[in-house]
Backbone:
């Protein structure tokens, strides 16, 4: 394949992936409420965004869920990954197999299985049930991104720290933890993203009255999407884009990024 | 780190996994294999043979297979080009470019395709302007396939890309030194070595495509029911958890088959997207 053809191919896929982004950003400036009619340019959806208590509440719920579920999942997942590596092969394979279930299983099955659990044990659907569900699907992402870092650890460093008089806890914090930190961090980031973007599992585990941005958007599909949603998602998208560009341009970030892989 | 204490660190996760992974799956089987009064029955599972349900399963299988094949055909050349750009240094950025769309809400992204694909939509306006024949695909199975490819393409690109990057360049050079041409090198070296990534990509596209209810809802005009839509409606509209679970058990058979395929071909998790 010649270089020109390669570039055209990448460009076509790029257009395919980013066309919807462009549509949503254009719609966020559309004065008409209709999805398919252009009614002139406006900033009003952005201006009205902050005063829309419904959307702000959904945004708050979404962020709170993402922060709590990713932090809790990172804690449980990191210590689990450390422990899993210390098990013998058979036990380790079994635990990793179970870890793979939520990742490979269909989201709808994970969603309904948790819904049935809450129904069976008469747990009231609400914020807590969504949080429990999000932690559940987040833990595997953390374990799978911390595991490779632990495999690379040099066990004698930890033993040396103990020989030199450090307590097991101190040896862990000073020797092991800094080494696995990049893995912990990328697991946290992954979990956070997955929680923000989730719709299907939230759909089955949420109760009446609690809404994340995703479930709010889904409830608007039939009657037409509130254009403020386009404004909000454009803001989120541009923010992430700028953050990514900054992170990639920071001096020295390149080698770190490579290590995190 | 061989002391006993370390093993205890897995306790919170083991409890969590039993409570929120294992027991919920047992629940699916419990509800799927019992009736409302709690008696054992195969009625719910057998319901898949009902024409409505069977048709939904067949359409879902068909559309997800087509989407998976197209995803594979689109992704492989792309992953190859990206993997070859390895040396130019900006490949990390390229990968980010393909993951970035995931940061915009998945429902909105899919809805945006309505605006693009509609009969009076953006694409048709451009086609009319260029005096080309227009597309009439919104609210048809084609639109659903389109949505599946759009949403799941990155899941195919990333595992294949990961595997291709790990191929030792010396192997390719050796093949050429031994007289193989580009095509032979590809079929004898590159392709066989990338099988774990392909299998992993196929699973990661096929399973969500087979089980989706959102994409068919948003782009199929709610006229086309996939098996995912049927199950979703049994749970949220009809509150018939027994039937919904019974049909999910059938669905899980297909998921398990693709999981086993992954386990056989991808022993070390080389092809995982992480």
Residues:
């Amino acid at each position: 394949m010649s270089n020109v053809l390669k570039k055209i191919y990448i460009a076509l896929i790029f257009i395919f992936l980013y066309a919807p982004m462009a549509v949503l950003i254009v719609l966020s400036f559309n004065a008409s409420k209709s999805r398919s009619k252009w009614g002139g340019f406006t900033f009003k959806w952005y201006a009205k965004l902050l005063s829309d208590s419904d959307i702000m509440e959904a945004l708050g719920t979404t962020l709170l869920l993402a922060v709590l579920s990713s932090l809790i999942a990172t804690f449980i997942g990191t210590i689990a990954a450390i422990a899993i590596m210390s098990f013998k092969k058979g036990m380790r394979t079994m635990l990793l197999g179970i870890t793979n279930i939520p990742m490979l299983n269909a989201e709808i099955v994970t969603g309904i299985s948790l819904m049935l659990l809450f129904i069976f044990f008469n747990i009231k659907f609400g914020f807590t049930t969504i949080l429990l569900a999000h932690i559940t699907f987040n833990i595997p992402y953390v374990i799978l991104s911390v595991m490779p870092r632990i495999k690379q650890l040099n066990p004698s460093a930890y033993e040396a720290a103990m020989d030199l008089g450090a307590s097991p806890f101190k040896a862990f914090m000073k020797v092991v933890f800094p080494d696995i930190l990049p893995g912990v961090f990328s697991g946290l980031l992954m979990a956070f993203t997955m929680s923000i973007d989730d719709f299907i599992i939230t759909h089955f585990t949420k109760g009446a009255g609690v809404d994340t941005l995703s479930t709010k958007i889904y409830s608007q599909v039939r009657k037409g999407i509130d254009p403020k949603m386009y404004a909000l998602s454009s803001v989120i998208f541009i923010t992430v884009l700028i953050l990514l560009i900054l992170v990639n341009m920071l001096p020295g970030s390149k080698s770190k990024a490579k290590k995190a892989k | 780190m061989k002391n006993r204490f370390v093993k205890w660190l897995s306790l919170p996760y083991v409890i969590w996994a039993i409570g929120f992974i294992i027991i919920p799956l047992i629940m699916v089987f419990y509800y799927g294999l019992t009736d409302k009064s709690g008696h054992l029955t195969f009625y719910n599972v057998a319901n898949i043979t009902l024409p409505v349900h069977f048709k939904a399963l067949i359409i879902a299988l068909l559309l997800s297979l087509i989407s998976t094949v197209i995803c594979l055909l689109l992704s492989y050349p792309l992953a190859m080009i990206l993997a070859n750009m390895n040396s130019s240094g900006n490949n990390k950025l390229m990968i980010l470019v393909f993951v970035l769309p995931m940061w915009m809400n998945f429902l909105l992204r899919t809805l945006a395709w309505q605006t693009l694909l509609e009969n009076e939509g953006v694409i048709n306006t451009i086609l009319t302007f260029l005096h080309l024949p227009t597309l009439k695909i919104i609210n048809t199975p084609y639109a659903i396939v389109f949505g599946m490819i759009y949403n799941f393409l990155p899941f195919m690109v990333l595992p294949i890309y990961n595997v291709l990057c790990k191929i030792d360049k010396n192997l390719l050079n050796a093949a050429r030194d031994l007289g193989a041409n580009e095509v032979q090198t590809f079929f004898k070296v590159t392709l066989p070595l990338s099988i774990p990534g392909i299998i992993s990509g196929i699973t990661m596209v096929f399973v969500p495509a087979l089980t989706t209810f959102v994409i068919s809802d948003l782009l199929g005009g709610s006229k086309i029911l996939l098996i995912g839509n049927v199950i979703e409606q049994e749970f949220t509209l009809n509150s018939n958890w027994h039937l919904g679970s019974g049909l999910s058990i059938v669905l899980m058979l297909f998921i398990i088959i693709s999981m086993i395929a992954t386990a056989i071909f991808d022993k070390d998790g080389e092809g995982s997207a992480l």
